[in-house]
What we know:
- The longest helix has 21 residues, at 167-187.
- The strands form six sheets. Strands 3, 7, 8, 9, 10, 11, 12, 13 and 16 form a nine-stranded mixed beta sheet that branches.
- This protein starts with 20 loop residues before the first helix and ends in a 5-residue tail after the last helix.
- Helix 2 packs across helix 8.
- The chain has twelve helices and 23 strands.
- It folds into two domains: 7-335, BirA Bifunctional Protein, domain 2; 345-435, Rossmann fold.
- The relative contact order is 0.13.
- Helix content is 29%, strand content 28%.
- By secondary structure, the protein is of the alpha+beta class.
Amino acid sequence: MRLSRYFLPILKETPAEAEIVSHRLMLRAGMIRQQAAGIYTWLPLGLRVLDKIGKIVREEQNRAGAIEILMPTVQQAALWKESGRYEDYGQEMLRITDRLDREMLYGPTAEEVVTDVFRSYVRSYKDLPLNLYNIQWKFRDERRPRFGVMRGREFLMKDAYSFDLDYERATEAYRRMFVAYLRTYARMGLTAIPMKADSGPIGGDMTHEFIVLASTGESQVFCHKDLLDLPIPGADTDFQGDLKPIIDQWTSLYAATEEMHDEAAFAAVPADKQVTARGIEVGHIFYFGTKYSEPMGAKVAGPDGVERPVHMGSYGVGVSRLAAAVIEASHDDAGIVWPEAIAPFQVGLINMKPGDAACDATCAELYATLGKAGVEVLYDDTDTRAGAKFATMDLIGLPWQLICGPKSLAEGKVELKRRATGEREVLSIADALVRLGVTA
């Protein structure tokens, strides 16, 4: 993509309403634009990040055996009344009526809808286990939306829902999602710690929040230091095998949110292993048994022919929130530092002197070569001063900057900068391409 033809509305000044780093940088880098309190338009750069986060989430859900569907944003109130949650959910639910005065709502979550789908089609235990997920916009009317997309009212969420015959099998589904979540966050360059948590309005008696430690986190968290260094399950993990040893390794060490904190249990952790910090919730998983299936009649016939309510769990990932969480965990004074897996582009190609024959020709060749190799490039071909070019590239945080100027090109070389470390190298064009993963 040529920057001269791209829509990248960079802000020089930090908007006054931005209280935390991710909100400031997302606004300044032209990723988002506020439309109303807690509601944002995702601009081209931000949308590219959002799509890449969603791709990783999908890949790990599919790997764990979940099947993607797409549920509506607007739901019937009747389903929520059937489950008993319509009045209990509170003022965060946006209640609306259609032109025929039917009660509707903008979905804050989708347990009722997916249970209705399940009960409409599944009758036998032979069709289990089943895990259905969707990545869809949700709305919760936060009393005080703040921190940009970190605590917005409209947000993109992956929500999965498992259906199993009994508690034992439902626990296996829970473990599969637990491991899938560990892998999902690690692929984005995040260390997300599973912590005992309050189930809130979702319900359930087995639940974990996945927390990324950050000074701007919403809540206080407490954990064992060794959790920061535990190995992440590999891509060859057998999701149909016994995952209990992996889960036990993570849950045997103390980790809890403020609501579930046990001072006596934390005091038993060696003093040099105690970590007290702020944290950002980026995912939440629940087992809630028959909380929804029983009142809504989601039953299957077991091996004995007797019908029984299925055991369910739900598993949420804050896809839009993750974009902000990564920035909170990976930035410096100059701007964002994206991990390669979710960077909007891998390389920022900088033409230091547009109009110069050598610079134009070399940049055109590099742009074409990288593109053919599948490397995503943002080519700064604009006629602006060098300082502004560097500032923009640092702000938007692309992993690599490939700099072409008359002086270095006269020697047949270019400059390559790694954003994460600031390391710069002057290399031949061929060596620079190899460093970026392009081979002849």
